[in-house]
Amino acid sequence: MALKTATATERGAGRAETWRSFKMATWLGWQIESNWADPFLFAIYSFAKPLASAAILVVMYGVITGGAYNDPLFPYVYLGNTFYIYVGAVMTGVSWAVIADREEYKTLKYIYVAPVEIPIYLMGRGVARFITGSFAVIITLLAGVLFLHLPIDPAKVQWGLFFVSLFIGVVMLAMMGLLLGSLSLILVHHAGFLGEAVAGALYVFSGAIFPLSVLPPAMQFIGYLIPITYWLELLRRSLVGGVAEAFPTLQGLSNTQLLGILLGLSLVFGVISIFVFRACNRRALDRGLIDRTTNY
Amino acid sequence: MSSQPKQFERLSGWRLFFNTIAARAYPRLIGQQRETSWLLFDVFLPLFSVAAYVYLYRAMDAPEEYVGFVLIGGAMTAFWLNVLWSMSSQLFWEKEQGNLSLYIIAPNSMMAVLLGMAMGGMLATCLRAIVILGLGSWLFQVSYQVVNFGQLFVVFILAMVALYGMGMMTSSLFLLFGREAWHISNLAQEPIYLAAGFYFPVKSLGFWIAAGASIIPLTLALDAMRQLSYPGGEEVGFLPVNVEIAILMVLAVVFVVSAKLLLDKMEKLAVREGRLTEGRR
């Protein structure tokens, strides 16, 4: 009985430590992200990049189609690009925490010796980016609805599907961020570019701004292996269901099938991330890489 | 003193100036040869954006010239990124790493240091831009029909002088920045790609926006290069090529002279306020 009580207490302490690590990392991430400027400048900074990125596509689309924004291709492009903001924000946010703490602030070694769960800490550091990313997504969507007649009707949106897909996707992106962060622990060169490079590659392979059918067959195959492809499609379908039927990518799959594939691939990536983190973490500790400064 | 070996002779005047330029350009050129893995990121990262925009144009059945426009814009992003991260914010990085105070107390001209950075960066980035353009053109089967090679060369050279002059000018401003330097460089990417028409003819933005964006040398340079790369390119051009060349000349002079003036001012200010050795994280 005494042993049982002790185990339960330990479990409780473990959960408390997990929650504390996450909460503290979230607060720290938010401070790092936001306190370099006054709130107004920070808001401009947070919105200018994603809005400019969307505007590039809008201008490209407008130039070629002569402003045919009611064509199904436009919501496909616009929504794909808008929700891709989360990929850069969450995935890169989690992985960049390793570089920022190790190279820039030189605090990673102190965090390692503190009673903190490192994967949970890294996830927490990504939350700040998720928050700023969410603001950017909302502003970009609003701009699309107000100025470009993006056909989003709140009464017709499948909110359940939207939030479930969004939640699964964000967790999946955080796990992919952990995977990249783990590799950053042991990479000698270019660890700082890893998140950006992977996000750039996934932007092409997931068909974020064009139907996958435009890609050569070999690249399409890679696209079908990436969970982000299914995630973006689900978000598009949940928001503009009627229009989404005309999207050429993944036409043959129902929402339930897409959700199942997204969940399955997310689980696979999640499990891989945990194993890769354990392996990289052990290697980094063995080789004394935690306080390394590469200046890359 | 007269018995001092020749290699330790103290240089001064123009010899010191040119030696400083060569010394600062050296690591940028040779560093790249020693660490070729940089090429992977410098070439493939811009290629991903280029590929995405190319496929978008293809999805919309755009004329093939637009694929060429994207590739030219993609190649020129290498120069913009180089100016942004390795010119404008370079003195900030030097400060963070403790080199800036060494630059200041050494008997060389800071202008020569900046020129060396610009020369080295420009030559090294040329190689990357050529690879991006060549690889992209091969991958996407794009061909060009250059209308006037002479003008194209003049536009490119003027664009480089003006662009790197702009980088030299802004680098002294970055001396006054702390942690926000990184964010400001980061911010000057997508909004500039939009305003300068990196991936579409800048004319599409309307006259006044395009005119305002012309303060960035790449706006007019890209527009002129696109006009010169395809017959009939003037249809999508913002201004006639000769006018764009004239404006680029003015920009080149203004930016280089401003760089000298601002550098002198900011250097004094930074010394007076003791910001040369601080690391504000």
Give the key terms.
heterodimer; A: 296 residues; mainly alpha; 78% helix; B: 281 residues; 0% strand; globular
Helix and strand run of chain A: HHHHHHHHHHH
Name the helicity range of chain B: over 70%
Count structural domains of chain A.
Answer: 1
Structural class of chain A: mainly alpha
**What's the rounded overall pLDDT mean of chain A?**
89
Instruction: Output the radius of gyration of chain B.
Output: 20 Å
How many strands, what sense, and barrel or not for the largest sheet of chain B? none
Q: Taking Cα atoms only, what radius of gyration of chain A do you get, to the nearest Å? A: 21 Å
- As residue ranges, the low-confidence spans of chain A are none
Shape of chain A: globular
What's the number of domains of chain B? 1
The percentage helix of chain A is: over 70%
| Chain pair sharing the greatest interface | A-B, 38 and 40 residues
Order of helices and strands of chain B: HHHHHHHHHHHH
Major β-sheet of chain A, in short?
none
Q: Note the beta-strand portion of chain A.
A: under 5%
Total beta-strand segments of chain B: 0
Low-confidence stretches of chain B: none
